[in-house]
């Protein structure tokens, strides 16, 4: 796999969408090929599942079934969008991925063993190269999400109790602490400009490390691996 896979995670109102757009624009301005996508969704099949899940229609089926639906959407998304883009040497920026299932469905009552099995079945070896966690306290995040939503109704997960949102924040931070190589935790309470600058700096540094690593492995291996974004 020659591309570079970056996922964005965080609670409601953490600004992932804005930051993904900003990072994509700055990478494209450098001539790099970038695919942006999101979960649940990213393909027609996954978008249909997105509607079923976020409308709350699947809630009555219980947390395990919801986890399975997220996994079905993810499998389609990985197979038809993410893996082909990475194989084509692109940088993929994805709004939420498997860490959201660990946090949301994990706290929602799904067994860790089920989540692990689903993770293996849907993403296999395709773990993100970098995961950017936009960390924000539940109160500020929910206020921002409400402002963005305007008069629209909160979705199945947004509308839950604030203590659950605070638990989700802690769960994200604990996954990040367990995988410090993959995670970059960013303080998302600052201005969008400051956050975008920090993310750009970090990502450029990681891309440069990857470029040096690939160059060190020799040209024959790089040619065999296919096109690279770097
Ligand atoms: P979305 O409208 O994309 O919101 P956000 O801007 O917060 O990403 O809604 C996605 C919701 O689905 C969000 O509340 C988190 C939840 N979710 C899960 O519960 N499990 C998952 O695996 C994923 C990808 C999302």
Note down, in words, how this protein is organized.
By secondary structure, this protein is an alpha/beta fold. The chain has one domain (about 5-210): Rossmann fold. It is about 60% helix and about 10% strand. The protein contains 9 helices and 5 strands; from the N terminus they run βαβααβααβααβαα. The chain has helices at about 15-30, 45-55, 65-85, 100-110, 110-125, 140-150, 160-180, 190-215, 220-225; strands spanning about 5-10, 35-40, 90-95, 130-135, 185. The chain has a 5-stranded parallel beta sheet with strand order 2-3-1-4-5, sandwiched between helices. The two termini are about 15 Å apart. About 35% of the residues are buried. The mean pLDDT is about 95. Thymidine-5'-diphosphate binds near residues 40, 54, 96 and 100.
């Amino acid at each position: 796999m020659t591309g570079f896979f970056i996922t964005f995670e965080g609670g409601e109102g953490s600004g992932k969408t804005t930051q993904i757009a900003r990072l994509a624009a700055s990478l494209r301005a450098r001539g790099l090929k970038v695919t942006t996508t999101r979960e649940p969704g990213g393909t027609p099949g996954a978008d249909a599942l997105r509607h079923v899940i976020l409308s709350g229609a699947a809630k009555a089926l219980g947390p395990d079934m919801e986890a399975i639906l997220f996994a079905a959407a993810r499998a389609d998304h990985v197979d038809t969008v993410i893996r082909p883009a990475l194989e084509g040497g692109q940088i993929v920026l994805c709004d939420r991925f498997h860490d959201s299932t660990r946090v949301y469905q994990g706290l929602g009552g799904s067994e860790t063993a089920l989540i692990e099995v689903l993770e293996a079945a849907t993403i296999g070896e395709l773990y993100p190269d970098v995961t950017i966690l936009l960390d924000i306290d539940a109160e500020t995040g929910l206020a921002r999400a409400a402002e963005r939503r305007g008069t629209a109704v909160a979705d199945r997960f947004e509308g839950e109790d604030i203590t659950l949102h605070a638990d989700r924040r802690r769960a994200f931070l604990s996954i990040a602490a367990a995988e410090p190589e993959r995670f970059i935790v960013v303080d998302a309470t600052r201005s969008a400009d400051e956050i975008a600058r920090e993310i750009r700096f970090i990502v450029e540094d990681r891309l440069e490390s990857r470029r040096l690593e690939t160059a060190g492995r020799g040209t024959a291996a790089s040619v065999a691996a296919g096109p690279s974004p770097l």
